[in-house]
Amino acid sequence: MGIEPDQKRVMYSKKLYSNYDFKVLKEYSLPIKNESIDYILIISVLHHISCADIKTYIEEFKRVLKPNGKVIAIEPCMYKHKPFCNIFMNWLDQGRFIRDEKGYIGFFHKDGYKCDVLRRFTKCFVYNELFFSACLKNY
Fold first, then answer.
1. What are phi and psi of 3, to 5 degrees?
2. What's the CA gap between 116 and 57, in Å, rounded?
3. Is the pTM of this model over 0.85?
């Protein structure tokens, strides 16, 4: 299932991939039943979302994830030891909220998630990425 706030993109996705389910995100509410999702995959989305909005989404993730479900994310990431990359990413990327590792992980920790950094990597020589997972601490 794919979820997107832009109705036009949802319609386009449905046209291209008719065997899959695509839904429009409305007002922070995922159109999904409680505790029904095994995995939430987030690729280069969080750096477009303000701190206040991320907190709201993380609460919504708790609602829809199964008790042992996971959030898996890949996001552009700032690193103190790579100032050139940070400048380049801020210049190139349209996301206004590229964070450092503690920034991304901190959102989830504050809301009761256990996080694991799966990999830190650089693509295209200058674009830092953070690959991490988050699951509720009780599981």
1. -125, 135
2. 19
3. yes
